[in-house]
Amino acid sequence: MRMILLGTVGFVLYFVYDINSIKMKNTILQQFFGVGSLCLVIATVGTMINLCDFGRLKKPIGMFCAVASIFFLLVLIYTLFFALPFDQTYLKENKERLACTEGMYALCRHPGILWFTALYLCLWGIVGFSWRGIYFLLMILWNVLYVIFQDLWIFPLTFTNYAEYKRTTPFLIPDRDSVYTCISTWNGWNRGER
After folding, report:
1. In the predicted model, is pLDDT for residue 68 greater than 90?
2. 127 in Cβ contact with 51 (< 8 Å)
3. I want to staple 13 with a disulfide (CB 3.0 to 4.6 A). Which of 36, 88, 96, 155 is the partner?
4. Model pTM?
């Protein structure tokens, strides 16, 4: 229960961070993204330590979920921290910001949720898909609510090109065109930089 509460606090801090970035612009509250991320990491690691049956890792489903969780964690980290300019995204207050519309962010408007959901489902698979895994499902739910909040209120006020981005890029589920655009704009492929 403590880990569920701590993970939930992490998402509450994300909401406060985003509201602050639009309304108050308080420098202390600007740190809430990092603190919220720390809460979520601690809660997730704590949940895994409390629930993990390490014997399950010897079974094919446990091994598959473990390997897949590492893959999805790396893709999530890339999506959130390397596919975007870190300083401009998380540290600086910028005027006239443009949404990233290439590479991973051409796939859908919130690609992080794809990898977060896959990661948390794999972690749930490691602990055994039992009711004890409610933590993982709840964190996925909070993340879905968070990106809906961002998509409807925060990002239209943050990015000057967000209305156009919404017209050209799917919300959460990639389609054939967005997959093509993602691949063709990855690291400047369509601009002749590769």
Report:
1. yes
2. yes
3. 36
4. 0.87
